[in-house]
Write a structure and sequence with these properties.
Blueprint lengths: L4 E9 L7 E10 L2 E7 H5 L5 E4 L4 E4 L1 E6 L15 H13 L4 H17 L2 E8 L2 H11 L2 E8 L10 H14 L6 E3 L2 E2 L7 H14 L3 E5 L3 H11 L3 H7 L7 E5 L5 H9 L3 E4 L1 H6 L7 H7 L3 E3 L12 H16 L7 H7 L2 H6 L17 E4 L12 H7 L6 E6 L2 E5 L2 E2 L4 H19 L2
Parallel strand pairs: 1-4, 1-5, 6-7, 7-8, 8-9, 8-10, 11-12, 12-13, 13-14
Antiparallel strand pairs: 1-2, 2-3, 5-15, 15-16, 16-17, 17-18
Helix pairs in contact: 3-4, 3-16, 5-6, 12-13, 13-15
């Protein structure tokens, strides 16, 4: 067996169906794929072209961020402490009107740097100029599912919706069979998309067998608005239009009825839970324990940096676990193992990538991170899963491999020039500040 990379001397958490763990394990990589997972003595005997020493830390699948708006790193802290609709319509939409492909590329590259440095190896993005998002992710070596946001009013990128649908089709064709980037169809929400647009988006998703991503029931106000307009909840509205399917990723799902939960379960819809964004915007608390009990696949997302304000999925895991414990007054709700699966294998399943990433298994793509546990806040360690959810920070990620490429080693990025990027982002920030009057 030819081994290009061996990650050794660590506790290996596979996150596979059997939840296998190797206390002194290793992962062997050849090309872009995992070719061995198991005890170190078994794999180390083969020899390898390159070795990463985990130094007794944790070797695990990279984290998967199932909902974000990557280029909104450019707006981090721009308009904090405001209600969702005021934040969106009075501050974010006007700022986005000033964007172009170059700014989105830079903002996405910044997001990729932040995600790599905090242990995320794959993200799902909804934004403008998504061709630039796709290229930035590809250049940074990050796995990504991307889709141009679609809504009824003219976009600052493509203009009228017909051009938005055409742009989506061009993205599908351009990135077909790419090893890192895949395309989704992404109408913004039921309240910003007419029924005809939603049905056309679903048709594209079905024809090309790709994900359909949409914000759903993010606030009670949104649900009230949909009831007034259509006489039903957003989930019921999507059901009547034929949008509920295993391809659908419903983001947020804060204000759900029991009938909504049943519909999501019956149609095998995936849910992206974004607790920190929902908390910051005072949107409410999604009924995640109820969704999980019903058998709905729930994954984690950070949302964009202007409503979070970071892309650290380790922090998101910690928040998710604690939020639902205090909300239900039940300390057993959302145990560490369940939350860890939400951020790894269940995230992969939600994005339709469960066969290639999300767990460490022979034949899957080599999307692997190493956590440095030789730190005061991680010593001693009785249960690795507990530490990962309640104690580890994004800054504890020491190395990252995506699709077999080492994109970070010893906390140093290998695909992004941080110095040049920071200078570029500061210049864009000055432009945004002048426009916004800050």
């Amino acid at each position: 067996m030819s081994i290009d990379l061996l990650i050794r001397n660590g506790i290996v958490l596979t996150m596979d169906e059997e939840d296998r763990k190797f206390d002194r394990g290793a992962v062997a990589v050849s090309g872009d794929a995992i070719v061995g997972v198991g005890p170190e003595e078994t794999l180390a005997a083969e020899g390898a072209a390159r070795v990463i020493d985990a130094r007794g830390g944790i070797i695990m699948p990279g984290l998967i961020n199932t909902h974000t708006h990557a280029a909104m790193t450019l707006f981090r802290g721009l308009a904090d402490d405001l209600p969702l609709m005021e934040w969106l319509q009075d501050h974010i939409f006007p700022a986005e009107a000033r964007l172009d492909a170059d700014k989105v590329y830079a903002g996405t590259t910044l997001a990729c740097a932040e995600m790599i440095l905090s242990g995320t190896t794959c993200f799902c993005d909804m934004y403008l100029f998504e061709g630039a998002v796709a290229q930035a992710a590809r250049d940074a070596g990050v796995r990504a599912v991307v889709g141009e946001v679609l809504y009824d009013f003219p976009s600052p990128h493509y203009g009228p919706i017909e051009k938005g649908l055409d742009y989506t089709l061009r993205l599908i064709e351009k990135w077909r069979d790419d090893p890192l980037v895949s395309i989704a169809v992404e109408p913004h929400s039921p309240y910003l998309c007419a029924p005809d647009l939603l049905k056309r988006a679903e048709s594209i998703s079905r024809t090309h067998d790709i994900p359909l991503v949409i914000h759903v029931s993010e606030t009670k106000g949104e649900v009230d608005q949909m009831r007034e307009r259509y006489g039903k909840t957003p989930v019921a509205h999507l059901s009547d239009l034929g949008l509920l399917s295993p391809r659908l990723i419903a983001c947020h799902c804060v204000a759900l009825t029991q009938d909504d939960i049943s519909l999501l379960r019956d149609h095998n819809v995936k849910v992206s839970h974004n607790p920190e964004s929902n908390m910051k915007l005072a949107s409410g608390i999604a009924p995640i324990p109820e969704l999980l009990k019903a058998g709905v696949c729930v994954a984690l997302g950070t949302d964009g940096c202007s409503s979070n304000n970071n892309l650290d999925l380790f922090g998101e895991m910690d928040t998710a676990a604690k939020l639902h414990k205090v909300n239900t007054l039940d300390p057993t709700v959302l145990d560490a193992g369940a939350v860890l699966r939400m951020a790894t294998i269940d995230g992969a399943r939600a994005l339709g990538l469960g066969d290639i990433t999300g767990s460490l298994e022979t034949g899957k793509r080599a999307d692997i991170i190493v956590i440095d546990t030789d730190k005061p806040h991680l010593t001693p360690m009785y249960h690795p899963e507990s530490h990962l959810v309640y104690a580890v920070r994004g800054s504890d990620a020491a190395a990252s491999v995506i699709n077999g490429q080492v994109v970070m080693a010893d906390r140093q990025l290998t695909t992004i020039d941080r110095t040049a990027l920071s200078a570029q982002i500061r210049e864009i920030g000055r432009e945004i500040r002048e426009f916004n009057g800050n």
